[in-house]
Predict the structure of TetR family transcriptional regulator.
Amino acid sequence: MTIQPRTLKGQETQAKLLHTALDCFAAEGYKASSMRVIAARAGVSLSHAYYYFSSKEDIVARLLLNLRTEQFDQCHAALNEGNTLESNIRSVFTSGLDVMQPYHEFGPAFLKVLLSQDLMDNELSAVEFSLWEKAVSGARPLPPLGIRRDLPKFLWLLSRQLFSAWAYDQSANQRRSMLLMNNAAPVVAKFAVLCRLPVVRSLFEDVLSLMDSGSSIRDHEEGQASDPKVSKAS
């Protein structure tokens, strides 16, 4: 788990390790870049490197958090009150693609980080979720009251699924997943409007429950895999 350095020197050392790791990943490949190699190139002892980052996956997690924070800064001002829900959804997707595009090669590593974390209980999720809350609360007209509270979570879970598609998209400039995100915005906006109807609102609740249960099953399976008793039994 990444620590937050309290001194300027510590912040500079952590930033140097992060930048050096990215250079190593680009030159040697992600798999070949061990913590020992990263520390040596940064001119830092291995124990010191482990003080700031517990693993190279931890470095990738910090990179992903930095990119999502950059997306937040870039996108938050665009989510002005008065935009349509479709426009706000597209703004979040577009800003995400803008900041993530140079790091597409890390897509699988990003996903590994996401799957290793608690779904809601981390800083990364808080940044992502706040964007979707802003997208919903700033939309005009406001989404139906019956789904307004749960719509940010629905959009956040959906964005994680679309991010998975982007991470493994080998089409030129990830054209397929970009088109998927672009087309998802009007579909979700129309679905939200239709949720004024009780039968459609019930469908929304079922879909959200299904998406939530999928995450719960994944977390349960990961917990079992890490349980020595379960591992021994299997």
